[in-house]
Amino acid sequence: EAVVNKIAAGEIIERPENAVKELIENSLDSESTIIDVLLKEGGLKLLQISDNGTGIYNDDLPLLCQRFSTSKITKFEDLSSVKTFGFRGEALASISHISRLTVTTKRKDAVHGWRAFYIDGKLAPATGHGSSAPQPCAGKQGTVVSVEDLFYNVPSRKVALKNGAEEFRRILLLIQKYAIHNESVSFSCKKFGDSAATLSLSSRFRRIDRIRQVYGSNLAKNLLPFEVYGGSLLEGFSAQGLVSNANYASKKTVFLLFINNRLVESTDLRKNLEEVYSEFLPKGASPFLYLSLNIPESQVDVNVHPSKRVVHFLHDQEIADLLRSHLSKVLENEDA
Ligand code: ADP
Ligand code: MG
Question: Taking the CA of residue 140 as centre, how many other CA atoms within 13 Å lie in the half-sphere pointing to its CB?
Answer without folding.
Answer: 6
